[in-house]
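Model it.
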Amino acid sequence: MGAARHVAWSLPAILVIVGCGSSPTGSSAVTRRSSTTTAEAVTSSSETATTSASSGVPAVTAGGVTADQAAFACASHSGGDASVAAQLVAVRTAHQGGFDRVTFEFAFPAAGPVRPGVPAYRVTSQGSPRMVRDPSGQPVTLQGSAALRVVVQNASGFDMTASPARATYSGSRDLRPALPAVREVEQLGDFERVLSWGIGLASPACSRVVVLSDPTRIAVDVQSS
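Modeled.
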């Protein structure tokens, strides 16, 4: 693991990015609040949702977007700000109407400059559940027949700026929820502030990425029907 920094900020806007993934099974939460057994809202009445230009979906303003209104597509997703440092604090899975959601929650680092925003991320889909660990290159086969790889830059589950250094993420690193689309969510690497997770899918499926605020979360939605 590299030096960790913590990111918990308020995003004035919710960014909905559309792309494609695979379909796994899972409904267990790693570090979940009791309220997470219900669907997480994509926007609140005071937030704004915007889609990426590549998605072809127009921006929708406050109060007009729900999770099932943002289009899914089969493509890679990327976004965020490379200058933003983040500390992973929770990973959750849940099933909602028509899709499964994997949520990565972040907070501020213990020390150092705090830059509001979302850390740079990329979500890529592949037609095989076979992946490799970072940085060892050790092969990993996730449950399912397809997968998504989630990579977050300048992020870690261990905060080296704290005194003493401490883990900010203490949840499971291999979730196997009983969801229609998401079969497995496993950490593939946390090295030199590059955090990577694999999402094993029951079958290839389109996906999208939704950025949520208060606290900052990157939610990966996978179509389940």
